[in-house]
Write a structure and sequence with these properties.
With about 300 residues, the protein is α/β, with parallel strands linked by helices. It contains 9 helices and 11 strands. Helix 7 packs antiparallel against helix 8. It binds 3-hydroxy-5-(hydroxymethyl)-2-methylisonicotinaldehyde. 3-hydroxy-5-(hydroxymethyl)-2-methylisonicotinaldehyde (PXL) binds next to strand 1 and helix 7.
């Protein structure tokens, strides 16, 4: 079977791991083909390095789509993240409509963190992100983004009680039309994870991993990338969220152990092999399941 193909519409930031510098290696490690549509080139991300450069690539998006259309390309997934302008979000919506086919549209509604929008996000952009997210099969908001999407107060949107998390995840599903992986859920002091509303079952489940005290840049991008890779490789929503939570936690732990700067993101590259291994194990389990018990493996008659 060929690698599933994912169109990834994110910015490319040269330094400070985020967006495409996380999305591309992660999808590749998981055995998916990543086809990037860079929305902008920045010298660094916008969170903590001062005056970053910003080359807007919005004008490229239409011609890229025209060329891809002429090639008859289809994708198993379309995955979007940080956006630079409302115009870019409108084009990204057009790209999802044109290329999603039977594939999966994952919209990470990147807008902010810790109760505040990122400094380049205007209220109009936040509204446009809400509209873009309506096209999604799966959204992956953090607490800040969930509050913006729902028009709720950040302080009121607590993610430390199961019943509240269920309610927020269900509300974010737009009446069950899309699946939701709400990140930043912490049902016990020493764990961090996600509440997952699965539109196929209507159920809310939880995924959690050990919490790491330091907060690193780009962990939302890493979580959503692992989730997307796992979903296009055929894992269910809860299992995919569990893998993502576990991987982010391991990467954050090794970053903290080395006392690396938070703005540079998590030191994930040395652990990428784990994602490849997880996918291989999963495929082997599936093959064993289909083959049934072999000679000497099953119960004796
Ligand atoms: O990790 C989200 C993100 C992505 N891309 C850019 C950013 C940020 C968050 O600050 O600045 C350019």
């Amino acid at each position: 079977m060929p690698a599933p193909r994912v169109a990834a519409i994110h910015d490319l930031s040269g330094f400070g791991r985020c967006s495409l510098t996380i999305v591309m290696p992660t999808l590749s490690a998981m055995g998916a083909q990543c086809c990037p549509v860079p929305t902008a080139y920045l010298s660094t991300h916008t969170g903590g390095f001062g005056a970053n450069t910003f080359l807007d690539l919005t004008d490229q998006m239409g011609p890229v789509m025209d060329h891809w259309r002429s090639l008859g390309l289809t994708f198993d997934g379309v995955y979007t993240g940080f956006m630079g302008s409302e115009a870019q979000m409108a084009l990204t919506g057009a790209l999802i409509r044109a290329f999603r086919g039977d594939g999966l549209a994952v919209v990470d509604p990147v807008m902010g963190d810790l109760g505040r929008p990122y400094r380049t996000y205007t209220p109009a952009m936040c509204r446009a992100m809400g509209e873009l997210a309506e096209l999604a099969d799966v959204i992956t908001p953090n607490r800040t983004e969930a509050a913006i999407l729902l028009g709720e107060d950040y302080d009121g949107l607590r993610l430390d009680r199961e019943a509240d998390c269920r309610r927020w995840a269900e509300r974010l599903s737009l009446g069950g039309r899309r699946s939701v992986v709400l990140t930043g859920v912490s049902l016990s002091e020493d764990t961090l994870g996600a509440a997952c509303f699965d539109r196929d079952t209507g159920a809310v489940t939880f995924a959690a991993a050990p919490r790491v005290a330091s907060r690193y840049h780009g962990t939302g991008d890493l979580f959503a990338s692992v989730l997307t890779g796992a979903l296009v490789r055929g894992l269910g929503l809860t299992e995919a969220a569990g893998l993502a939570a576990d991987f982010v936690s391991r990467c954050a732990a090794r970053t903290e152990e080395q006392s690396l700067p938070e703005r540079e993101g998590v030191d994930f590259e040395p652990l990428l092999w784990r994602l490849g291994q997880a996918m291989e194990n999963r495929i082997r389990e599936e093959q064993d399941r289909i083959a049934g018990p072999g000679p000497g493996k099953g119960e004796q008659p």
